[in-house]
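re: ur question from yesterday

yeah so i grabbed the chain u mentioned. its 123 aa long if i counted rite. heres the sequnce exactly as i have it in my notes:
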Amino acid sequence: MAQGRGSAVALGLALLCLLIHSEIANAATYVVGDSGGWTFNVAGWPSGKRFRAGDVLVFRYNPSNHNVVAVTAAGYGGCSAPRGSRVYTSGNDRITLARGTSYFICSFAGHCQAGMKIAVTAA
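ran it thru and got these structure tokens back, copy pasting raw so excuse formatting
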């Protein structure tokens, strides 16, 4: 009987690994702002795109001029980066989306207010 349970656990783990692998294999990569990259007036860039949990957003920009900050809905609406927000500064940042809505802004003075922010909802 114990051997049967061990086989069931092994089969369950194998199926879980297959499911995780299939989700990763189906993940898409999106360059934010397309060929223009992460810059001003990108707030509408997500429109018409269907994002899924596991998809990757690539933010390309000059790190001397911009950054990417993952913020809350309030931070997005108010163009502010709350204490403890994750700040990306490489100029080629890859961020994997979780299910739900993710918010990103540039925290350089005036940039978010000039449309350098996006809200992305992943199913």
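noticed a couple things. The radius of gyration is 19 Å. also DSSP finds two helices and seven strands in the chain.
anyway ttyl
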